[in-house]
Amino acid sequence: MNTNQEILIISVVQTIVLIALAPLISGVIKKVKAVCQFRQGPPVMQPYYDLIKYLKKDSVVSETASWLFFATPYVMLAAFSLAAFFIPAISYKFSMSPVADIILIFYLLALARFFLTLAAMDTASAFGGMASSREMMVCAIAEPALILSFMSIAITQKSTNLANIMSSAAGKSFMLFSAENLFVFFALFLIVIAETGRVPFDNPATHLELTMIHEGMILEYSGKYLAMIHLAAYIKQALLFTLIVNIFFPYYMMTTYTLAAFSAAAAVFILKILIFSIIVGVFESSISKSRLFQVPDLIGISFVLALTSIITNIVKG
Amino acid sequence: MCGVKLIMAEKTALLLFLISSFTYLASFASVLIFHKNERQIIRLTSVLNLFAGICGVAMAAVVLAGGTNAVYPFSLGSLSEMISILSPADDFSIKICPYAGLFLLIIYSISAAAALYSRSYLNEYTAAHVQYSRFAKIAIISAIFPLFVLAMAMVVVSNHSILFLCSWEMMSLFSYFLVMSDHENPKTRTAGFTYLIMTHFGTAFLFVFFMLLYSHTGSFDFSAYVNVGNRFSPSEMTFMFILILIGFGTKAGIMPLHIWLPLAHPQAPSHVSAMMSGVMVKVSLFAFIKCVFSFLNGANLASGVILLIVGAITAILGIMYSIVESDLKKCLAFSTVENVGIIMIAISCAVILHSQSYPVSAAFALCAAFYHIMAHALFKSLLFMGAGAIIYGSHAKNLDDMGGLIRQMPHTAAYFMAGVMSMAALPPMAGFISEWMVFQSILLTLKDPQAFIKILMPVCGAALALSSALALTGGVRLFFSVFLAKRRNADKFKHEAKEVPLSMRLPMMALAVLCFAFGIFSPHFIGYLGGALNSIMPVYGLNINLFSPNALYIVPVSSQLSSISPQAAFTMLILFILGTIVIFNYILPRRKVKVYETWSCGADINSIMQYTPASYTQPLMLVFKNIYLPQTEVRTQHNEDRLIIKKVDYSQTATMFFEKWLYRPFIKLLIRAAKRLKRVQLGHVHVYLLYIFVTLLLALISVRL
Question: Which strand (E) or helix (H) includes residue A311?
């Protein structure tokens, strides 16, 4: 029924949709924050204009930079696009997920992080070192909570294969009506916020080097390379949003191989992502950035929530 | 050889084994013969060891592929008469089964790489700055190395407990000699002494274990021990399990018995460090897995839980100490401790699953352990050889004195990067595949309905995730502090760093390529593990879809649970990278790239401004301060007038938990007890005669009773 060719076509189209959509998410979040602060804010399409502007500029590269500094944007962009290729966004029926399960996808993100943190060290800048070191701290404590959350999901849905998780969840009643899934949802929500470098973990809008994590690492990038890294970061954010949205709301996804079904599912997907972006924007407006050494406590909450979810699961049998 | 009918593959295997073993002996003998010329010794032993290693690899490949399972007895009649309890029929025998073949493959391939590597590396010892007994050093390293490899191979093939223990002891002693090669350094002597004590502590438990097995079976032959576990009660079983956990675990470096490992492994010459961390640790895991699954029938649930907890603690603490260490080779040694922990987690999943009657899942978990053993052997020996090359090229040992070497040593940097990526379990390297399999084993164990396992396993999964995230931190920290940015303390060193010669690069390149190949073509390699698995845990006849050499997917038990296809995924990764390069370099219009200095708020940038390895992990040290118990020392130097601060030294070191709270109190207690006991030693002959008389009297009374 669903041949390899169909799967390939859907995955390619879905990757293109996701990449095209990715900057818009940031635009929407910025707009929501602006509205919350009674500002007009930049237009929602601003991230696209920025990318185009960067691409037109020449780049200045540090004299201590080695080949690693130049390779990093390519590896990051490729790793995130590949992850977008594997995550079922529009259809779990036509997806590449037997090739790559959730653990492989997370390790693809780790591959990109490995290169980015090294590139930050490559320029001999103290800011790069500071940001790289902090990124490692946040990711080291976020990783156990993340895996624990997925263990909980794997217990409920009996799989780490994303398509199976989604199809199993789609067949059941609405997931957030059960306690264990509600716990996991909040655990994952915190992790997604941490991984995308948003308030309260990191402030993407800041321009003060001492408080930045992600922005500090890419301080030495400019021109084309900066555009690539920004695009990669947008894709990563879109990926993580897709993941949380599709695991907990895997409804109205494409099940038949027709153009109409695809367009309908794609429209629903874009709508889901945008609604989630608005929620994130409102969440971000309602809290302030926490101190760096309070981050472990926040992630600790996520860890405990995931563990509670597993225990709830066992108690329920 | 006795009249065992040998088929062709077995004949070939035996012949190759003998050729390899005698070549190692010849290599040892050649040092004695050519003891006059150090360069000749280095060249000759390197060639002979390389040849022997290649013969061994061929032999292991024949055994693994052919699935031979033969016992080759050889008679040592005189010894049997000497030791009266050995009956003449109880011959020493060696057994080369596919399971042994797997480990022989690891031993011989890494030692072949190390042999080639040693050819240029040992020249460092002929250099003028090695003053004291430099010739003896080369002779000892060259002479002992082949014997060390041979002893490890004997441990793996021996099929008789006395032969096994002798080989085990030889392996320990030869490695001790190699560790002590730099003996004029007091640190080395401490390391060697600690190693000697700890290894004998562990071996004592093995003696007890094998004596108990003898008392149950009346035989020293390993064949008689198969499934002897059936006769044990559950508590006896757990007791036996703890004996081998301590016995083999000491050599493997499980916490808290690991203390010798980060001391001894770095002190040896780098190619020997590679052998110790990459191979010797695996030999003890070989014996451990064999005893658990072949002799003790996979032990029981309690043993599995003990092993799981020990493994998780070892994994986390190992990597935690690794990321705050400043000595390059010590970092790698602590990472070995971590990886042993991960392997132990996989083995414990196998034990738990096996005891709860899930043989198919247990087989998968054991495969995960095997694959991590192989992956770790590859990348850790690569990293130790890389560390040797870095030290050889830059003359620095400490991470604080390195930096920027990627420009002078581009080849070493590339190979080291492959090793670091594998260590950090990043796709598409071998380390990722094995880590994925361990995660899946943990998920498989969740099938068990018992509530405490359902809670324990996810927590262990989280522990594994933490250790892998910290391994990523450690990998980045190692790579940047050695290779990136600017060199720190450059004025301390007279010479600029230089790339190492080809004979050192070649083995590193081979290992780096293997790290990739074992990642990308992993389903193919896993296909060959079936035979090895079957010789310790009968799995043939079970429905396992893992063991087809032409498989494209790795599937733990059922594809409903999960599956990955490394070939497809990693080919796509490469295609995506190429695609990105094409789009951004050829389709979009090109722009100029200008090289300019790094921005530093207008100040002059220098190497002191960079983050150091210690400052890189300082936030983590603060987050986990309850584990690290950091000791901070701030030294302030003032000017003559004591008003202006001239210099501030800030240092923060982690407290080694077990050293402080377990070993130090124990040693104190020991010394106090010895002081008490000293009163008995009066130094007069007649008192000692009295002691002898009393002892004799007591002995006689006890015999009469």
Answer: helix A295-316
